[in-house]
Every structure is written in C-alpha cells, then in structure tokens.
Design goal:
By secondary structure, the chain is an alpha+beta fold. It contains five helices and four strands, in the order βββαβαααα. It is globular, with a radius of gyration of 16 Å. It holds the Pfam family RuvC.
C-alpha cells in the first residue's frame, strides 16, 4: 500500500476579501492510515473599495491560475470548501459571489466540488479538538498534523489547509486532534 498513488485534496477557504487555498497530499502508509503534507498554499487579497463584480473576477482569476499551475497530470482526488451560514443577505452575498467565482474557475477544468462543504466549527473540532479554536491554534494544529515548517503568509492559508485536513480526518484517512 505504500506505493499507492497519493490522495490530492484541493481545499478552499472562500471569502470575498481574502480567500485561501491549499493542496494537502496524503501518502497512504496502511489501508486506514496516511501521512499528510502541504504541497501548495496561496491566497489573494481584494480591495473592499472595489465592486463585488470586480472582486469576484479577481478571485476567479486567482483560483484559475492556481488550479492551472497545480492540476498536473493527476488532478485532484477531492475538492472541498468551508461552509458558510451568514445571518443576512449582506453577509451572504460577498461570500456566495466568491464561491461562484471559485466554481467558475473549477468549471474551466471540468472540475467541481466533490464533497459537501464543512462547517467552520467542524473543521476546528476535527483539526484542533475544539469547535471554537483561535486562528493560531488552527495554524499550530495544521503544522502538527502535516509537519509543515514554512510560513503561512495569512491565516486564510492555514485555514484552507485545515479544511483539507478536516476532510481527511472525517473520512478516517488520518488521525485528528486527540
């Protein structure tokens, strides 16, 4: 099983202001266990003074370029994002516009999200062990689970990695927070 093809997870922490993305690669050691590593991270920051339409175009362009650079010959086995439940249309509109932008980028490659979105608290619970973890606790847990020693330029990169890890944990592919 150690020579099996790695599982590649493309994970998005989607927002209009600063979305992040991560690729998590799982190398299977045993049928029920794998080792996780981060193979790519990125984010883009939009300007709140710009229209939602322009900001969505920027997010779509960024996501398209990231996917094009990293799709390779093996593609992605899983594509996942964090769920979002705003309290009003004013909160929902920007996030859902960014979701649509990422959807458009994926569609250019014949891709779509392959699994239901994971709630923020479920991501934190799986990765950190508590649903109300702080940003630094999430980043520390991501480092612990992946051995990542590089820099997270912004929290959105470690959050995206956590989303991919939460999927792997929830599927029983790796062990999560103890």
């Amino acid at each position: 099983m150690t020579n099996a093809k790695p599982i590649r997870i493309l994970a998005f922490d989607t927002s209009m202001s600063r979305p992040g993305v991560a690729i998590i690669e799982l190398k299977r050691n045993k049928p029920t266990n794998a080792t996780a590593s981060i193979t790519a991270l990125s984010h883009v920051t939009t300007d709140a003074k710009q229209t939602h339409g322009l900001r969505a175009e920027i997010v779509e362009s960024w996501a398209t370029l990231f996917i094009a650079e990293h799709i390779g010959k093996h593609g992605f086995d899983v594509i996942v994002r964090e769920d979002f439940q705003g309290r009003s249309s004013r909160q929902n509109h920007p996030v859902f516009s960014a979701w649509g932008a990422v959807d458009q980028a994926l569609n250019k490659f014949g891709l779509t999200f392959t699994t239901p979105a994971i709630s923020q608290s479920a991501v934190k619970k799986a990765v950190v062990g508590k649903g109300k973890a702080e940003k630094d606790e999430v980043a520390d847990a991501v480092r612990r689970l992946t051995g990542y020693t590089g820099e997270f330029v912004v929290d959105d990169e470690s959050d995206a990695a956590a989303i991919g890890l939460a999927y792997a944990i929830n599927e029983g592919l790796i062990k999560g927070a103890e």
